[in-house]
Write a structure and sequence with these properties.
The protein has 707 residues and is α+β, with helices and mostly antiparallel strands. The protein is 55% helix and 15% strand. It has a five-stranded antiparallel β-sheet.
Length: 707
């Protein structure tokens, strides 16, 4: 309750300030108020309307509109426009007066069908008359309402002028315009006044060649009306004069005629309801405006709290859009209720309309942001339904599409919000030139410091078009190696080993990019490269065995596909090169597979290195014994399980021994098993040589023999 009291106090203060202390007439008029306008329309008691030279034409015009309210209210001459306006407003005022003051005596809370048709006809007259006024200087959001109010005030001014003028008023017809000079033909002023009509050139939605009450006149009608308000309302009621039109218009709800239930209230109740307490606004208007604002605030607060409580889910996304949409019609309905039904006028009308226009466009912007965020986030649901293993090519395509759609959605919502902002400024009466000047601010920002941002955006669009970097790729951008997690319009995110690295798109476009990813069937795989020096296993036979063992391991392990094993020799350096494709999703799996391959390759190198060794015998060995040594070694190797004899030959006469090169092949599962078998082989060789009395010299030298 305290919040509501506080809100009511703030509301009353704002409304009071807006209508009294703050001069919003400059906003209403589109410029500063000129208080010298229409000062000369102060006539003594004159000849009367019926004695004016245009009265017969007015009578004909009145009857024409009475029977045929279809033609436009403007005319090809000042006379035609003025008579049309005066006839239409007279007809509308007469209908309003008869229904409001006499129709309310009929029983019921609602107007009957016949009365509704009369009200509709009167509103047509009134709207046509208001359209003869050039209200282009009024803010777009209040243009229609202020033009309606100005039309009623102008009607009272004409009542006063036509009935109080001491001289005849000559209104130029279409035929009389030829006698006027070019300036007078384009803009004609009513004698002894500042009321003028201007011939339209067809711009700003006006009909070309038709005469409208000038913008200058419309902007200053209020000041002129205040000077003659009492005299105009004191004129006797007749066919044309409508002395109570303005008071009924601003004090009662509805456009022209109030609802039946309001009109049926007792006169004493009307007197209380129509007491002006803030500006020209009555107790009835202020009370129901407060109720409207209060209910609107309660709804908006509840909706905001409901949105805050929503969690992240598909259902919540739908509810968030639903809740964000509700304030849009609610704001517009509240604005129309205050402006059109309660019939606020003047500065208070401007105040409430501006507030609700700001809230309306703000609600549209919030709804737009939520809507486009939902479109971007909706791809998560599709991804979850594609593959439970998260390894399909279709999943990757949708993931890439998501990273493209999300920034596009956000960019689209930003553009729409900017358009809404410009429309809001136009609605609040900011001149078009000022709005265009405001639109140059982004260009100025780009020139002063946003050029890098623009470069990143252009590079981002190029990357999205080329598709050389996609989400899920394992690549190296500059010195950064990792997985592409996001490709945006401004930057890309790469999950490196140390952490997530954000790289501007312009840098990614201007540097070397190595993409280790490859498409294999329906799967996106990453390449794994391994390079190991093999100086201790460099004989041709060892190189051949090394390639065979590595290729065999890679083919048997399903973690690796499309393996390639080769040996690269550059100068004195010999390198084992292994390339294979792996299917992994993060750094942990990548490192596990790389370490697994590196460890296994080191074991293979060690095994191949030990698979070729030199056996030296002393010079005391006889020729017969030398000839038996290859067979002895073959026999020993064949007796050991999981070892195969690869060959043995007398390689050279060394300084202390005769050297034999032995090659063995061990098809063992693990490196430790091979070492155990190798240990048994050495022991068997020593025992066999001792049995055959073959001596191993001292010192012995065992080394890899290069062929």
């Amino acid at each position: 309750m305290k919040k509501f009291k506080k809100f009511f106090t703030i509301f009353i203060c704002f409304a009071f300030l807006s209508s009294g202390f703050f001069n919003i007439s400059s906003i209403q008029a589109g410029g500063s108020e000129n208080k010298t306008t229409l000062e000369n329309i102060s006539f003594p008691y004159g000849i009367g309307l019926s004695s004016q030279p245009f009265f017969d034409d007015l009578e004909k015009n009145y009857e024409k509109w009475k029977n045929n309210p279809i033609a436009p209210g403007t005319g090809k001459s000042p006379k035609e426009t003025i008579l049309n306006f005066y006839s239409l407003m007279s007809l509308a005022g007469d209908i309003e007066n008869n229904i409001y003051h006499y129709g309310k005596k009929k029983p019921g809370l609602f107007w009957d069908k016949e009365t509704k048709n009369k009200i509709k006809k009167g509103e047509i007259y009134f709207i046509k008359a208001a359209h003869t006024l050039d209200g282009s200087s009024f803010a777009k959001s209040v243009r229609e309402h202020l033009s309606d109010e100005a039309a009623v005030e102008l009607k009272h001014i004409f009542d006063y002028i036509f009935n109080s003028s001491k001289k005849e008023i000559i209104l130029p017809s279409y035929e009389n315009l030829n006698a006027l000079n070019e300036y007078e033909q384009k803009e004609w002023k009513l004698p002894n006044s500042k009321i003028s009509l201007i011939r339209s050139d067809g711009k700003d939605g006006f009909v070309s060649g038709q005469y409208y009450f000038s913008d200058y006149t419309v902007r200053n009608i209020r000041y002129a009306f205040k000077k003659i308000e009492y005299e105009a309302e004191s004129l006797p009621k007749n066919k044309y004069t409508t002395p109570h039109f303005y008071s009924d218009f601003i004090h009662t709800p509805g456009l022209l005629v109030p609802p039946k239930w309001y009109a049926s209230l007792p006169d004493k109740v009307h007197e209380i309801f129509e007491i002006e307490i803030i500006g020209n606004q009555t107790i009835f208007q202020i009370f129901f405006a407060f109720i409207t604002v209060l209910l609107y605030s309660i709804f908006v607060i509840k909706i905001s709290n409901a949105i805050k409580k929503l969690n992240i889910s598909v259902k919540s996304d739908y509810l968030r859009i639903y809740y964000a949409f509700i304030p849009i019609p609610l704001t517009k309905i509240s604005e129309l209720f205050i402006d059109k039904f309660l019939n606020f006028t003047g500065n208070t009308l401007i105040f409430f309309t501006f507030i609700f226009e700001i809230l309306f466009y703000f609600s549209l912007a919030i709804f737009t942001i939520f809507l486009f965020e939902f479109i971007g986030n909706n791809f998560f649901n599709k991804l979850q339904n594609v593959s439970s293993t998260r390894s399909g090519h279709k999943y990757i395509d949708l993931l890439r599409l998501k990273t493209f759609v999300r920034p596009v959605c956000r960019a689209s919502s930003t553009v729409i919000c900017i358009v809404l902002l410009y429309n809001l400024l136009l609605s609040l009466g900011v001149p078009t030139n000022a709005v265009l000047a405001l639109s140059a601010v982004p260009g100025l920002a780009i020139g002063l410091g946003a050029s890098k941002l623009l470069g990143n955006l252009i590079s981002g669009l190029a990357m999205q078009a080329d598709q050389h970097l996609n989400v899920g790729n394992f690549c190296k951008v500059g010195d950064t190696l990792g997985y592409v997690k996001r490709v945006g319009l401004r930057s890309i995110d790469i999950q490196a080993f140390e952490g997530c690295v954000t790289i501007p798109n312009a840098f990614a476009e201007g540097t070397n990019v190595i993409n280790y990813s490859s498409l294999e069937g329906d799967l996106i795989k990453q390449s794994l490269n391994l390079k190991i020096d093999i100086d201790n296993a460099s004989s041709p036979w060892q190189k051949k065995e090394l390639i065979r063992f590595c290729q065999k391991f890679l083919n048997e392990d399903k973690c690796y596909s499309n393996p390639i094993v080769s040996i690269d020799k550059e100068g004195a350096k010999t390198t084992l090169v292994i390339y294979a494709l792996i299917l992994n999703k993060d750094w942990k799996e990548y490192l596990e597979l790389r370490d697994k391959l590196s460890l296994k390759t080191s074991e293979i190198i060690g095994q191949v290195s030990l698979s070729r060794f030199v056996v030296g015998v002393s010079y005391d060995t006889t020729s017969k014994q030398l000839a038996e040594i290859p067979e002895l070694i073959k026999e020993i190797v064949n007796e050991i399980d999981d070892l195969e004899y690869g060959g043995c030959k007398f390689s050279q006469i060394n300084q202390f021994s005769y050297d034999f090169v032995v090659c063995i092949v061990g098809e063992l599962g693990t490196y430790s098993n091979f070492l155990k078998t190798y240990d048994n082989l050495n022991k068997s060789l020593i025992a066999k040589f001792a049995e055959k009395n073959i001596k191993i010299p001292f010192p012995t030298t065992t080394f890899d023999q290069k062929n």
